[in-house]
UniProtKB/TrEMBL annotation:
Binds 1 Mg(2+) ion per subunit. Belongs to the HAM1 NTPase family. Keywords: Hydrolase, Magnesium, Metal-binding, Nucleotide metabolism, Nucleotide-binding. This is dITP/XTP pyrophosphatase. Homodimer.
Length: 185
């Protein structure tokens, strides 16, 4: 059985990936090698830098993921700075920024970077709205305030399997799975 490392300290992301990659004959291993995350306005640039850094340290096939929440009314803020903003002001802070704002449209973007005989990039986007309040206690990060299109529930109200059907990460991981199934080297 082939081994594939997912470089992340986020147990929620690992759980989502494990479910998505289950159909493959791959042993998925979570590892957190503490790579630096550059500050850039483009998620792909961040992921490519991270892939190159990690490839020098881990000599096995691996992937990593970076994502961001882009809120239209806030000029795509927090975008690639989503983790910092989540750690700083959290969901309550985002809801305060959008208090009395009618346009609550937003999207999540995920970039999965695979290193297997060179770098490969897979992108997923999930469009939706920011709720007026925290909904649910599941998931992590912005999940309780993001309601994807064609869903009555926030990510925070969904099971992992439900979330993977709507989520940006699920869509990027779906492309990763298709690539790995194709056997292209």
């Amino acid at each position: 059985m082939e081994k594939l490392y997912f470089i992340t300290g986020n147990k929620g992301k690992f759980k989502e990936a494990k479910i998505m990659l289950r159909p493959l004959n791959i042993k998925l291993i979570q590892t957190d090698i503490g790579y630096p995350e550059i500050q850039a306005s483009d998620l792909k640039e961040i992921v490519l830098f991270s892939i190159n850094f990690c490839n020098e340290r881990l000599k096995s096939p691996f992937f990593l993921e970076d994502s961001g929440l882009f809120i239209d009314e806030l000029n795509s803020f927090p975008g690639p700075y989503s983790r910092y903003i989540q750690d700083t002001i959290g969901n309550d802070g985002i809801l305060k920024l959008l208090l009395n704002v009618n346009n609550r449209s937003a999207y999540f973007k995920s970039i999965v970077g695979l290193y297997k005989n060179g770098p490969h990039i897979f992108e997923g986007i999930s469009r939706g709205i920011i709720s007026n309040e925290i909904l649910g206690h599941g998931g992590f990060g912005y999940d309780p305030i993001f309601i994807p299109e064609k869903s009555p529930k926030s990510f925070g109200e969904m099971t992992t399997i439900e979330k993977n059907k709507f989520s940006h990460r699920g869509r990027a991981l779906e492309k990763l799975v298709t690539y790995l199934e194709s056997g292209v080297e």
